[in-house]
Design goal:
The protein is built from eight helices and no strands. The protein is an all-alpha fold. It has one domain (about 1-155).
Length: about 160
């Protein structure tokens, strides 16, 4: 992930995009790393949010276009997992899109929303809101605690 930080905001965007898709990766480390290197907090928020949103929405369209056998073969999301998620989708619906960023289950939620063709525009909006909230959390933590953390690690 270090090489992504060398690319600055573009690297953050790419890393967040990959993390938002079906590839397990932490874009949280990237945003905090770029902030610690002096990155502009608002540009970091925008780059990470847009990258993660587009990566998650890519997973949605993977689900939309997928067939059972291809999902299992390419992404390890088997029919049993999606059927289990269908119960949650029926119960919580679009609220699951807020949690597209959640480790392990986020991609399955989003693929499931796409597979069951749950309202694309609304899903898109809810994914974006969830991504912005996630990275805003890290930016706020950085604003509040960065100086204290730097003082602590340099002692």
């Amino acid at each position: 992930m270090e090489w992504l930080i060398q690319f600055g905001y573009l690297g953050l965007f790419i890393g967040a995009f990959v993390a938002g898709s079906v590839v397990p990766m932490s874009s949280d480390i990237l945003i905090v790393g770029l902030l610690a290197l002096g990155g502009n907090k608002w540009l970091c928020l925008i780059a990470a949010s847009l990258g993660n949103w587009l990566g998650s929405y890519t997973s949605y369209w993977i689900g939309w276009l997928a067939k059972w056998d291809k999902l299992e073969k390419w992404f390890g999301v088997n029919q049993e997992k999606l059927e289990k998620q269908k119960k949650k989708i029926d119960k919580f619906g679009l609220l699951l899109a807020f949690f597209s960023w959640a480790p392990f289950v986020g991609a399955v939620f989003i693929i499931g929303l796409g597979f069951y063709r749950i309202r694309p525009k609304a899903t898109c909006l809810f994914i974006l809101i969830g991504c912005v909230a996630r990275f805003l959390f890290w930016v706020i933590l950085y604003i509040i605690f960065a100086d204290q953390f730097i003082n602590w690690i340099t002692k």
